[in-house]
Amino acid sequence: MEPIKQTTRYHEMADPQVQPRFSGIPTFFRAPYEQDLTQVDIGVIGVPFDGGVTNRPGTRHGPREIRNQSSLSRRINTATGVQPFDGLRVRDLGDAWIEQPYNLEPALGEIEAFYRKVVSAGVVPLSAGGDHSMTLPILRAVGANGPVGMVHIDAHADTGDEYMGSRYHHGTPFRRAVDEGLLDPKRVIQIGIRGHSNVAGGLWSFSESSGMRVMPIEELADRGWRWAVEEARRVVGDGATYLSFDIDSLDPIYAPGTGTPEPGGITMLEALRMVRGLTGLNFVGGDVVEVSPPFDVGGITAMHGAAMLFEILCVLAAARKQRAKK
Predict the structure, then answer these.
(1) 307 within domain boundaries
(2) CA pair distance 245, 309, nearest whole angstrom
(3) CA end-to-end span of the chain
(4) What backbone torsions phi and psi does residue 79 show, to the nearest 5 degrees?
(5) CATH assignment at residue 130
(6) How many whole angstroms separate alpha carbon 260 and alpha carbon 231?
(7) Are residues 127 and 162 in contact, defined by beta-carbon separation less than 8 angstroms?
């Protein structure tokens, strides 16, 4: 069926990704919306859920705003040369929306069931959240056949334990993931960790005791983003790896719209260059979490979330193409 609007002069604009960025129905990166998983290589998914937050809510609105801001993305990453849409079917799979959002553990189970279908179909998942508790059920799907490594860029280690009656919240997904055998802690690096604590020994004591490599913000600032990239490569090696980017890893000047902001964070340029520097690792999934539009200013947090989602898409695309050659 032919579209109602036909190009008459700029025929390249028949491609929705080349049309004016303020036009069209918002999808992630203006990619086609798809429900047939046999037609997808990389599926971009929204997880509109904030049932696991411990401070400011609002991340349930994150995927919609990230979709909107992702219209600013183009087709080629000029910094790395990666063309994620070239030869790969990148599709917006819609949202892993929750039928029982007020019941935390069943809600996480719904997310898990969604991602098991996606991963079982051979689709690489790229997700926009949503609070960080959503990464646990994603890892249950991605790590179903064996533990994976992880590059985790965040202000918080998210390896806490029970809090206010629940063992499942956005401050504990990676402790639970280790408990469940989904993450190999010796292949996990956590970059940019900072903030105060009410617990002696710090909020990342489990991370260190389990064997994770914790890189506090002070070490990152002293040694630089290039060092962080090399250290990440050393830690995760060439095995299957997940990439999780919490928007609160950024200094609040770049990401005011988040639930638990921490002063003294990563700059946006450092974040971009770190993720670009990870190109070539064997990534099998990734996410951007904790964008909370109700606390945003001028859409800056959602814009930066969309930019990081595109950078993660690029490293996932490079990994997918590399695996296809083997």
Answers:
(1) yes
(2) 9
(3) 38
(4) -75, -35
(5) 3.40.800.10
(6) 26
(7) no
On whether residue 18 sits in a domain, the answer given is no
Residue 195 lies in a domain: yes
H helix or E strand, kind and range, residue 143: none
User: What is the per-residue pLDDT across 21-39, written as a single tens digit (0 to 9) for each?
Assistant: 888 889 999 999 999 999 9
Residue 148: domain span: 37-325
Distance CA(157)–CA(212), nearest Å, equals: 10
CA distances from 43 to 25, 36, 172 (A): 18, 11, 26
Q: What is the pLDDT of residues 82-114, one digit of tens each?
A: 999 999 999 999 999 999 999 999 999 999 999
Instruction: Answer positive or negative: Cα dihedral of 244, 245, 249, 252.
Output: negative
Contact 252, 287 (CB under 8 A): no
The percent of the chain in helix, strand and coil, each rounded to the nearest 5, is 40, 15, 45
What gap in Å lies between CA 44 and CA 316, rounded to an integer? Answer: 11
pTM value? 0.95
Tokens of 276: 């670009």
Placement of tokens 């290039």 in the chain: 226
Token pair recorded at residue 46: 């929204």
Number of domains in the chain: 1
Per the CB < 8 A criterion, the answer to whether 267 and 251 are in contact is yes
122 in any annotated domain? yes
Whether the per-residue pLDDT at 197 is higher than 90: the answer is: no
